[in-house]
Amino acid sequence: MAVARHAFWRAVRSGILIPALLLSLFGFSADVRSGENFDGNWQISIFGAPGHCQFGYRMKMTIDNGNVLYRGRQVSPHAIYVSTAGAVTLRLGTGKYTVVGTGAIDARRGQGRWTAEGFRCTGWWRAVRQ
């Protein structure tokens, strides 16, 4: 388990974990759209709980016509989904290295929690519309 924790920490510190998880989930069609209520650019801050998973990471995402985009590419709604009411669900990765999260956004901001059981890590996220 110590090796998995070390790998998690190294991936987070190098800034590749979250983008790598997102990039691995592109290419799915979005049959269900979250609506246009939340369209715009968003600054996402992701934090790990204090201890071996403590980190902070910021990234930009866009919601366009109800679809979540990262670096201009659509993210699968199975990975990150925003409902028309603003409920957010996350499911990134596969197997024991899956990150699962929930939360909500409104017209200007949002927040939620995530867990990565395979890494024995938890944390939270915040979003601010730009």
CATH class category: Mainly Beta
Mean pLDDT: 81
Strand portion: 35-45%
CATH architecture: Beta Barrel
Helix content: 10-25%
**Strands side by side in the biggest sheet:** 4-3-2-1-9-8-7-6-5
Low-confidence stretches: 23-34
What best-fitting shape do the alpha-carbon axes yield?
A: globular
Provide the number of structural domains.
Answer: 1
Number of strands: 9
Element string (H = helix, E = strand): HHEEEEEEEEE
- Helix segment tally: 2
Structural class: mainly beta
Spatial gap, N to C terminus? 39 Å
Structure commentary:
The chain is mainly beta and 130 residues long. It has one domain: Lipocalin (Beta Barrel), CATH 2.40.128. Strands 4-3-2-1-9-8-7-6-5 form a nine-stranded antiparallel β-sheet. A hairpin with a 6-residue loop joins strand 6 and strand 7.
Outline the secondary-structure elements.
Blueprint: H1 2-13, H2 17-23, E1 40-48, E2 55-64, E3 67-70, E4 73-74, E5 80-82, E6 87-92, E7 99-105, E8 109-116, E9 121-129
Antiparallel strand pairs: 1-2, 1-9, 2-3, 3-4, 5-6, 6-7, 7-8, 8-9
In a nutshell, what does this entry contain?
The protein is mainly β and 130 residues long. It has 2 helices and 9 strands.
Features:
130 residues, globular, mainly beta, 2 helices, nine-stranded antiparallel sheet, single chain, Lipocalin
